[in-house]
Amino acid sequence: QVQLVESGGGLVQPGGSLRLSCAASGFTFSSVAMSWYRQAPGKERELVAAIGSTGANMIYADSVKGRFTISRDNAKNTVSLQMNSLKPEDTAVYYCTRRYNTNVWGQGTQVTVSS
């Protein structure tokens, strides 16, 4: 079955960096576009970034452009999100999922940006 396991979250000060990872299994990872979403308390889940199956065609939410970078390693079945210049408004639970089939979600990883 499809499994997505996120890791790498934590508490970081404003301006700091974190790198999130998502380990995928149960499907042909190298053939599937992937996405990162986030959900802050009291808000709807929103798309943060997405990447095509070959590692090209990245898209980003306006709020993270220039600060976040999505990447993938098809040999390791992982997708990552490098987050730099973090702001308090980036605080949320971050999830990875398949870009065009969002019926399965991981448990998420908490990112808290606070001084």
Mean of residue pLDDT? 97
Count all strands and give the number.
10
Query: Tally the helices: what do you get?
Result: 0
User: For the largest beta sheet, what order do the strands appear in spatially?
Assistant: 2-10-9-4-5-6
Low-confidence stretches: none
| Share of helical residues | under 10%
- What is the N-to-C succession of helices and strands? EEEEEEEEEE
Oligomer: single chain
Q: Note the gap between the termini.
A: 40 Å
The outline comes out as: globular
Describe the biggest sheet? Answer: 6 strands, mixed
What is the alpha-carbon Rg in Å? 13 Å
> Strand content of the residues, in percent?
over 45%
Structural class estimated from helices and strands? mainly beta
Write the layout of secondary structure elements.
Elements: E1 3-7, E2 10-12, E3 18-25, E4 34-39, E5 46-51, E6 59-60, E7 68-73, E8 78-83, E9 92-98, E10 109-113
Parallel strand pairs: 2-10
Antiparallel strand pairs: 1-3, 3-8, 4-5, 4-9, 5-6, 7-8, 9-10
Task: Offer a concise description of the structure.
The protein is mainly β and 115 residues long. It has strands at residues 3-7, 10-12, 18-25, 34-39, 46-51, 59-60, 68-73, 78-83, 92-98, 109-113. The protein starts with a strand and ends with a strand.
